[in-house]
Amino acid sequence: MATLKQLEALHWIAVLGSYEKAAERLNTTQSAVSKRIQELEADLGTALFDRSKRRVRLTVKGEAILPLTDELLDLHARLVAIGSSQAAPIRQLRFGVTELTALTWLPAFVAEIRATYPAIVLEPEVEMSTDLFQRLRDGTLDFIVVPDSIWQPGFTSVPLASVQNVWMCSPALMHDRGIVPLAEIGRFNILTQGTRSGSGLFFAKWLEGCGVRFPRLVTSNSMIALVGLTIAEIGISYLPLHCCGGLIEQGKLRVIETDPPLPPVTYAAMFRSDESANVVNTISSISRATCDFSHPIRWA
């Protein structure tokens, strides 16, 4: 029988991308996390992670089991919150998300929080990550969902999911096939979200670590604008792979494989450290239950 600790280990390894980070999050050792996964695999009779790769990757069965694991963990968190909380129901929620969340799972989150608290007053805001963080610091927002790269001491960060970005362009712009050295794409305009964006800051730091500097940058504060500019053959941009999957299937965008590839970006729900446990536990649970960056909203 799978234990709660085993399921937590599976969840955090998948979200954070390594045994080491999962151990830090669970306040235990890497060997203890490894043992929990081995015991879980033995109980289930199947391997959950592909150990032939350098990076931690779920097996096919592991990917199928992970959503069920998250559902069980969310149910447990809700039971604990209901059983232990003496706080009054949440009556108002001011929160901020970036464009990617607004285009994907924000409606599901709003529907779930409304079902949990029918009388709640919701005030969602959509802004750039650094602007949202400043509003969280100022107390004008109760929580935000942003890339965890902007976290600072004094705030609580709850990882939700990792988003895989890839370089993309119009099929008419670049005809190179196969894996392209990262510096080579610099001969085109590089479209970015800039330093007010959490992902923009994350990738700027990553590129600096790779020793790559692109001379022709076009910066926009809108992901939708970047998608449009990319489709229009203005340049190459990093975009969320699964969210843009439909545009790839339609032949409007194509993926450029680079060496090295872009690392995933972990998104987190962030709260001020003085936020009540009731709010943190409830919002984190519902966020994890509804978080899905892979399916954009369909309005046509």
TrEMBL record:
UniProtKB keywords: DNA-binding, Transcription, Transcription regulation
UniProt-listed CDD domains: PBP2_LTTR_substrate
Coiled-coil region list: none
Gene3D superfamilies: Periplasmic binding protein-like II, Winged helix-like DNA-binding domain superfamily/Winged helix DNA-binding domain
GO molecular function list: DNA-binding transcription factor activity; transcription cis-regulatory region binding
UniProt superkingdom: Bacteria
Domain HTH lysR-type: 1-59
Any single Pfam family the record assigns to this protein: HTH_1
Family recorded in the similarity comment: Belongs to the LysR transcriptional regulatory family.
PANTHER family, per the entry: HTH-TYPE TRANSCRIPTIONAL REGULATOR (PTHR30126), TRANSCRIPTIONAL REGULATORY PROTEIN (PTHR30126:SF77)
Protein name listed in UniProt: LysR family transcriptional regulator
Native organism taxonomy: Bacteria, Pseudomonadati, Pseudomonadota, Alphaproteobacteria, Hyphomicrobiales
